[in-house]
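anyone seen this seq b4? input:
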Amino acid sequence: VQLVESGGGLVQPGGSLRLSCAASGLTFSSYNMFWFRQAPGRERTMVASITSNGGSTSYTDSVKDRFTISRDNSQNMVWLQMNSLKPEDTAVYYCHASFADPALYDIYWGQGTQVTVSS
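predicted toks r here
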């Protein structure tokens, strides 16, 4: 199983980035998908989630109305559109897959992509 993130980089405050996560080796439509982030010296925290069929999303309060998570099960892809970026959004962003049936503990992580928001 592989989760490969891309799309990170350096952006000025107020700018936008779109992160992508390409999944392979798993039945993608059976997994809830998440974006987490981890800033230096801080814990990894959840930013956004989307259910296996894309029917429901959730966001941490600090990114609501700025970030949008989406997925395409036909392409095995999940994205995070990030608008109105702030310096406090600077972190390594990780794609995470979790099997939708809680009876089976089956999770995967990507390697992460760096997002730096700075002028």
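The longest strand covers residues 91-99. DSSP finds no helices and eleven strands in the chain. kinda curious what u guys think
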